[in-house]
Amino acid sequence: MNPMNYIYLSCILFSLGAAGVLLRRNAIVVFMCIELMLNAANLAFVTFSRMNGTLDGQIVAFFTMVVAACEVVVGLAIIVTIYRSRRSASVDDARLLRL
Amino acid sequence: MSLGTSDTLVYLIAIPLFSSAFLLLGGRALDRVGHLIGTAASASSFVVALIELNKMLGRDAESRGVTQHLFTWINVGSFQIDATLLLDQLSICFVLLITGVGTLIHIYSISYMAHDIDRRRFFAFLNLFIAAMLLLVLGNSYLNLYVGWEGVGLASYLLIGFWNQKPTYATAAKKAFVANRVGDVGLSLAVMIAFVQFGAVTFDGVAKGIEAGSASSTALNAMGAAILLAAVGKSAQFPLQAWLGDAMAGPTPVSALIHAATMVTAGVYLISRSNFVFDNAPTAQLLVVIVGAVTLLFGAVIGMAKDDIKKALAASTMSQIGYMILATGLGPAGYAFAMMHLLTHGFFKAGMFLGAGSVMHGMNDEVDMRKYGALRKVMPITFATFGLGYLAIIGIPPFAGFYSKDKIIETAFNAGGSKGIILGCVTLLGAAITAFYMTRVMLMTFFGTKRWDSAAHPHESPWLMTVPMILLSIGSITTGFIFSNGDRLKNFLAPVVDKHHHEHETELLAPIVVTGLAMFAVAIGISIALAKYSRKTIPASAPTDVTVWTKIARRDLLQDDFNETVFMRPGQSLTRVLAFLDKRVVDGAVSGVGAMTLRLAGDLRKTQTGYVRSYALLILLGTVAILAAILVVTV
Amino acid sequence: MNAPNIEYGILGPILIVLAAALIGVLIEAFVSRRYRYILQTGTAFAAVALAFLQLVLIRQTSSKAAVSSMSIDGVTIVLQGSVLIFGFLGLLLIAERGFQSFTAQAAAIPGSNEEQKALVSGLQQTEVFPLTLFAISGAMLFPAANDLLTLFVSLEVLSLPLYLMAGLSQRRRLLSQEAALKYFLLGAFSSAFFLFGSAFIYGQAGSTTFDGIRKSIVESGGSDQFLLVGLALLTVGLLFKVSAAPFHAWTPDVYQGSPTPVTAFMAAVTKVAAFGAAIRIYYFAVGGLVWSWRPILIAISIVTMAIGTVIAIAQKDIKRVLAYSAIAHSGFLLTGIIALSKDGLNATLIYLFTYGFTTIGTFAIVTLVRDSGGEVSDLNRWAGLGKRSPLVAGTFTLFLLGLAGIPLTSGFVGKFAIFTAAYKSGNISVVVAGVLASAIAAFFYIRIIVMMYFSDPVEDGTSVVIPSAMTVATIAICAVATLVMGIYPQPVISAINSLAFFAG
Amino acid sequence: MNSLTILGLLPLIGSAALFLLPKGSDLLAKQVALGVSIVVAIAGLGMAFSFNRSATGFQFVEKHQWIPAFGINYALGVDGISLLLILLALVLTPVVIAACWHEAEGGRWSVKNFFGLILILETMIVGVFAATDIFLFYVFFEAMLIPVYFLIGGYGTGEKAAAAVKFLLYSLFGGLLMLASIIGLYVISGNQLQAPTFDVTALSQLSIDPVTQRMLFLGFFIAFAIKAPLWPFHTWLPDAARAATPGTSVLLLGVLDKVGTYGMIRFCLSLFPEASKEFGPTIIVLSLISIFYGAFLAIAQGTSSGDGNIKALISYTSISHFGFITLGIFAFTEQSHSGATLYMINHGFSTAALFLIAGWMISRRKSERISDFGGLQRVTPIMAWLFFIAGMSSLALPGLSSFVSEFLVLVGTFARYPIPAIIGTIGIIFAALYILIPVQRALHGPITPGNENLTDLTLREKVSIAPVIAVIIFFGFYPQPLLDVINPAASATLSALQITGIMGGK
Hints:
heterotetramer; A: mainly alpha; elongated; C: mainly alpha; 20 helices; 74% helix; 3% strand; oxidoreductase activity, acting on NAD(P)H (chain A); transport (chain A); NUOK/Mnh_C1-like (chain A)
């Protein structure tokens, strides 16, 4: 199978993630979409690693997972706090800061 | 003509100048002696002038001119102007007239202005005028002359507006200044042309340059026209004549000195002084003649319709200067006669103005001749001196005006061809009208019935006023004969204004015929006036059932209406439009850019919706744009 | 197989800060509340000072480190030095206790009893210090990264603490939390682009190190689509961090919502770090692709200047004005990258160095103008400040003039240097745009000055609080720096000029 | 340290001393300011006497490295033109301080700050005219704006804040355009010389291609045209003049705005000779428009029935005068150049006199509207006559200083461009109008109610205006000392332009 297909897949995943970010209101879902985008990148890295015959890409993928985990920690903390004060996880409700 | 040097010329100017400054800076402390200091200064200047005349007459006819270098005034590259004075035959005539008549008028003013709280200032201004006028005639270059030229304009402005608490007087002063400024433009341009064409602006330098042929005839005609413009402004010639009548707002001695005897004749001086230009600029010369001829009639016509004695005299001045200008336009033959008429006119017109002042003095400053009448009995000296001036101005032999005017008429006829005939007729017509309106003035003022206001108690003026009048009237009797006898003045002036000894043109009419015609014209004028004003009683207010022509003449031949319609109204509109445009368009553009930026800012601000998803969309769009761009760049 | 060699000496500055951050976490966890503050601040200041000291010692270094994943060279030294200095100044503001900027308990619900209790007891959580130290270490690592992976990790190390710090404001908690949420979501979103772009670059270059990328561009001529797509996406991530348009939208909201000391810290430190990283990428890694990215950066630079300056005019909140000003400054700074020359490199570093002081000083003063409800950031209420507190207003004026780039302030030196570099490289269009933008920018800076001096004070309880020595010191240092580097910038310029080289 | 530096530092030290004075010591502050400015003026005049009038090039030169990394030097030096402009500033500063003794008292800030700002401004002015390094010039050019901004906004009247902002923004905008051009020059100098430089003499040796030259020229020119101000960049001036105190206006119009015309001579002409020649005719047209435009708008203020503002009127006359100056500069003849330079000096003095006296009139009458005056010649004769003399100088009456310069400009222009010169000459008619109309309305006529009890000038006021009037009269009769200083510099500028052909005269 042509490794390029994985790249196409990763592009599709990335686009799906991006679309999700734009379309979903729930902060958690938005955040999950971002995770999806990161994983699309991971897929690309791994694929390119395979294509290039170097291991760097795979290492990056591991690091990304770790970083994504950190992001989850921080992100959930923020989302939970804001949910506790507002009783809403909709990103559209948070628009006191504007103009 | 070789020029000597003299180191005393500067005193002519310096004495009145410092006196003026002293009087102005001295303040109220000098109020009690100011008039004496001023008169003394003028008299001292006159004495210096007499000494200079004496010295000059002692020199050979060809080297009578003297110069005095004072200091370098302006020196930039090839533009070098020295403050140098030049006294030659032409200027000495003026110097004597200015200081002589000037001193008499100073004396007259001591009494005339005795009750004015600002008499000291009045004398300071008179002295300033004397100094400026002397600088005008003594400067050796056009630019030095220009300083004096504007200086007399300033003095004239200050003196016309001497009683400027009265708004119309202040306006009159302003009008005079502005009209003069129009003329000044001409003089400025003349200087520029001279500098560019000849690299020099001294009279001598320009004359030599012309002789060397370094200027095209176009340039010379342009320079001549520019000089004429200057003369027209200063000498109240058509079309810049409108200010002179209003200038009568000034105290009467001012009218006598500045607006009759001296300043207004500066144009004649300028043209005569620039004879080398006009002799080589036929077109400009023709313009001079036309201006002179038109003004001559213009002034005369206005003179016929005026009931204000000073304005009638002013109109007459305008007309008489028209004669002089016309004469200067006739080339070398005319300069001397123009000068002669200028000098005689200086005497008789100054005398008449002082006479008018004397009448006003006795009549509570009433100027309307319709309120006069039969004054000859109560003011005999004034009547006598005014009468002598009258005889002189209408050209009755052997009074001064006869000699000078007759010569001009004669020269006009001799100008050649149809031009000669037209000019001759114009001058004759002018003489007739002059006779008419001056007779009218005489009749309305001194003869007929009393039409005085009940408050008026006319009386003869004190001796300080009558003596100058008497002296001037002596001048109006004698000067004509003295100057013309044996062509004395003409020969005296010849080295300056007629260097090349042009041959006279053939005479169209014999001199005696011209004289006869002139006498006839005068006689007609007098008789019409007698017929019209001596028998009937004169109404105390001007009749209103007059022809439209009379109405026009009364309105100064619509000169003010013309200026108002053609210059002032459009000017005012333009000013308003510009003020509006400045606010709305020029500044509006600036604030418009500001307002536009503000509006743009307001609009762009709305992109900051506060929705995090719209920000994300912005990021995505930006990404797409960058991707597209980078791929486009690649392809 | 040998273990890879780690150059602890030249990595020292980063390691010190990182270690201190970890210690800070431990302190927060184990030390009694009463001593936390003093220990935390002590650790933080000591760490930053020590790191700076170490940095001075290794200033001549120019080599790759940690298996080529980092590059400790002159450029890094300058940038890390800047980060440390601005970090230190930021810490001074954060440590200010004369007035409360930070919530006592971030986890507490706004207005809850818990929060009230924490507030009353005066016992404040001090997790902000280790967070700051983490951010500083990330900011030091970011411009030193010589590898896409390191770059990504350091980006996150820098960003994650900032997301949290943005939400720590004591007053107006909702705003602060919203700022944190927005910053976080958008930051994560853009880092996804960044990572995805990295993947494509790696895919083409076959290596994640900058040296490898550089080499591959030289060899391939750089016309490969993957590389370009990767570069485009990477650019998005970077431009987000420097808040260039159209990726700027988070900036005003986050700047406004965050506690002002954090805003000050982030405005200076993030800008230095992000531009530092950008310099290394555009100058070193993908310098060979200049034909592809320069036109794009020119366009973005011009748009950024325009957006920043124009929208700032319509702002009514001082912190938002300053946020847009920061955006405009990013536009100016991009011209230094566009120049792609030694001059451009020098100019960018000088600009960053001078800008940091001025911007920290500006925000420091914003923290001082308060009423009973906390900071007053409504511009209209700054009216008449010149009358009430001439010294504060005067200093603020100095900072604003510095931001506007008026001669004899450091801002002018930076602006001059950077425009000169851009002009020299032939990119006159950005210079002209920059000049015009500066003119527009002058308008809103001057408007604030007018407000302070020429409007009459409104009596609404707005006043300037007397700060502790820490804030005073910050403001003083920034003011002196703004002025001195404006009048006599030569030492700084020559130091930067002589240091600013990449390790080959 | 060299004399120019000392000259520039003295007022700065003075202002520092003022700021250190305790609150409330207003009188002391005034005395210190006056004392300092007089000392500086004397020092400056003393320096002028050791100026070598026959030499060309800069004198009192000093040069220190400032920012060697950018090739920037602290380089000062004066030629005839800059020397006279500095002297103008040095003489006018004590005059303004003495004349505007009470001016600051209604201001937003303390009196000492007002005089402190004026002294700072004096330092900036010395710097801007003495700088021979373009970067240094630019620094002063921009830094100068700040004290003026505070002087207008802090001590002015009416819409002062708006006027101050407009002034500052407009000037900054021009300055930034100039900055772009300066950067361009610097880069080109780096390409053509061994090292990039800002030295004005070295930069004038560059050969710049025509297109670039045009762009760079415009950058400089617009900045200077705004400063001067030339139509259509003038609209900030009337607002500023209306809002500023008379003393500030004197310094603003009398001295600061000369930086614009000075810059045209020093930078536009010598750095971009080709572009200057190319744009010359266009600028001459703009100058002519300025002459008439300024005159007409001044007349509009004068004739306006209600709200004619005397300060605005004077500022519009200045626009007209600046038209003459730029006309002279871009006519490229020796006469026009010397005339334009002399005009800068003379305009400084005559406008100073007009503004100061108008200021006294306003402070007494508590109104700026021309229609509120009237009959002042009766009530306050000395003030009225001094205003008249200043007005006469403004309309370039021969015998007063402005005449010489105006005439030189016109005669010089005529040598190269006869038609514009003729048009310009017609401008003198309108000059008469815009002076005589306010003279008539304010000084003549019956005493307007409310004016009966105005007091005439005090001794302090008389003494402070005396030097200005003396200068106006003296240099009207004897301008040659000034011309001797100007001529070498003017012809040096022209020879740098390599203008051939008419130099006036054949």
